[in-house]
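Example record

The entry below shows one chain as it appears in the dataset: sequence first, then structure tokens.
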Amino acid sequence: MKNLKRWPGWVVLTMVVAGLLAFGTTRDAGARTPEERVEDISKQLACPVCDGETVYESRNTQSASIRTEIKAQVTSTDATDDEIIAYIVQNFDAKTQLLPKTTGFESLVWVLPSMALVCATVGLFFAFRRWRLATDAVPNADDRARVEAELKVDS
């Protein structure tokens, strides 16, 4: 009966985590204006001259020209954000990409930490369960006889 009281909490926790993950991965910000697209794209690119700044933050002339090119691409073409980023990376500097891609080999940057967390959580669950079952064991007649024998030896 004691085990039945613990499972609803775990089920609720699992459902909440699954719901939050589903919400986080499927939510859509809706339609974006061209200015919002330019801002989002420029935040994903590193300044080719500055250290640790995005093209959006930097006031360098190269960053300004990249922002101008992004704005031109957004307003004059039907290219997706990824296509515009690829164009900027190819034409300005190969090191301008700030975030790794979410597809292909580079997706391992996103997948491996998540998988490690899941594996660690599952491993801890089974370890704690095994430890709890080992401590919840009821002593049998042999165990009681051993304890009594040891108590007699000590006294």
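Notes for this example: The chain has two domains: 32-99, 101-155. The chain has a mean pLDDT of 82.
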